[in-house]
Write a structure and sequence with these properties.
Blueprint (H helix, E strand, L loop, with lengths): L15 E3 L20 E3 L8 H8 L7 E3 L11 H8 L5 E2 L2 E2 L2 H11 L1 H12 L32 E3 L4 E3 L2 H11 L3 E6 L7 H7 L8 E6 L1
Parallel strand pairs: 1-2, 2-3, 3-4
Antiparallel strand pairs: 4-5, 6-7, 8-9
Helix pairs in contact: 2-3, 3-4
């Protein structure tokens, strides 16, 4: 049974890796270079630290299938949602498909600020949540993502507030939290003349009444 993963240090192009049914207790520093990995099976091992394990897998942007069941870390009450939040590319976790509802629950649990922004945009509500509000899970002791202020080489500029940002998502987040507006307009088309009618009447058409409703 495998207990050490140093033999993988020069394998950069692996897309599938089956390490299940071994005696692995820690994978820190052993897998993060496998950026092309799509399938990773780690079930039936002795992995205990959920945070360290997930951190090792965060760089695997192509990872779609992941098994971690039958490890001590899977006993964590928020284990599944935490993995779904930290590894958004994963579609099949522990032989079970990741649902949209689980993704929403994970976002709400580990990043309430962003969850509120998404809801405000979707339902036309204004949200005045202060930036850097602490998230609701006991696992995340650090505050939710704060806006990263510009460095010397920043080149992205938020057009509405003239503040440069290193990450374009920060500009979008700030804009969404400042104001979220929906507008609907309607016109009585029965009172609008057709092209043929306008040619026959040969007169300037008066502006039509338009009803506009705005939602925040």
């Amino acid at each position: 049974q495998i207990q050490d993963l140093t033999f993988l240090i020069k394998n950069y192009c692996l897309t599938e890796l089956y390490l299940n049914n071994n005696e692995l207790t820690d994978i820190s520093g052993a897998l993060k270079h496998l950026c092309a990995l799509q399938i990773l099976l780690l079930h039936n091992n002795q992995l205990k630290k959920l945070d360290k394990t997930v951190k090792e897998l965060k760089g695997m942007i192509s990872l779609q299938t992941l098994n971690l069941f039958h490890n001590p870390l899977a006993q964590d009450p928020d284990y599944r949602l935490y993995v779904i939040y930290c590894l958004p590319s994963v579609q099949l976790l522990d032989r079970k498909s990741v649902t949209q509802r689980e993704r929403e629950s994970a976002l709400h649990l580990y990043n309430r600020e962003r969850s509120c922004v998404v809801q405000s945009i979707a339902f036309g509500k204004r949200v005045n949540t202060p930036l850097g509000t602490a998230v609701g899970s006991s696992r995340c002791t650090q505050p939710a993502r704060r806006l990263m202020m510009p460095s010397d080489n920043a080149h992205l500029l938020c057009s509405f507030c003239r503040i440069p940002f290193e990450n374009p998502e920060d500009a979008v987040l700030l804009r969404a939290m400042t104001r979220s507006l929906m507008e609907f307009s309607s016109v009585d088309w029965n009172k609008v003349a057709t092209c043929r009618e306008r040619r026959l009447e040969n007169k300037v058409e008066e502006p039509h009444e338009k009803l506009t409703v705005q939602f925040r």
